[in-house]
Amino acid sequence: VGGWQVAGGQLQLQVRTERREVHGHWTLEGVSAVNGHLDAELPPGLQITGVSVAGAAVSAEQSADHLRIPLGACASTGCTVALEWTLSANGWPAEGEGFWLAQGSVWLEARRVMPRLG
After folding, report:
1. DSSP assignment of 90-111, as one string?
2. Cα–Cα distance between 25 and 13 in angstroms, integer?
3. Which of 32, 46, 94, 111 is deepest in the core (most CB within 10 A)?
């Protein structure tokens, strides 16, 4: 058993291939954490544009590849956490391991387009 739990959630991604951008919205349900905050690792190019806990906007700490979200009073009982972000993929290679755009198709890897909890 880790220091945090998530009961479920919903992820929505909007891919703008012409701009090489991904916009994400992730709602997490039943988030609890022993230490009072939820941490996430961020892929290169991802910028958090909004965070809310229990429906109220909160200030999350974002440094290069790390995000820390304060959960407040619901940390022990379970919070609803919503994250919004924009990811610029302009620096990604068009071929090889980083390949993600092709004529008429998109290939996304979760590790490249969304935060990884933990």
Report:
1. TTS-SSGGG--EETTEE---HH
2. 7
3. 46
Instruction: List the one residue out of 24, 11, 40, 12 whose CA is nearest residue 88.
Output: 24
CA–CA gap between residue 53 and residue 33 (Å, rounded): 13
Strands 61-63 and 66-70: antiparallel
pLDDT tens-digit readout, 37-58? 999 999 988 999 999 999 999 9
Amino acid letter, residue 53 = V
Token output for 101: 């755009």
Residues 6 or more apart whose CB falls under 8 angstroms from that of 4 comprise 31, 32, 33, 34, 35, 38, 39, 117, 118
54 Cβ contact list (under 8 Å, min separation 6): 72, 74, 79, 80
Kindly write down the DSSP assignment for every residue of 72-83, as one continuous string. Answer: GGGGTT-EEEEE
pTM here is 0.85
Reduced to 3 states (helix: H, G, I; strand: E, B; else coil), residue 112 is helix
